Amino acid sequence: MEIGFELGANVPSGVFALHAVIAVVFLGxxxxxxxxxxxxxxxxxxxxxxxxxVVGILAGxxxxxx
Length: 66
Known about the structure:
This protein is mostly helical. It has helices at 11-35, 39-65. The chain crosses the membrane at residues 7-30, 42-63.
């Protein structure tokens, strides 16, 4: 998948990595909610993790153009 910048030791990769780590935290919270049977919490945290990951890709692309 082309994300608009090269992964490596550069600023856009750092921006993406920061967002990816935060998205993983939200995936963990989604797992806790799913294990407890709270479907609305599971859905909300999954949506938040997905949106944070997408924002990381977009922010990395913006930073790479500057």
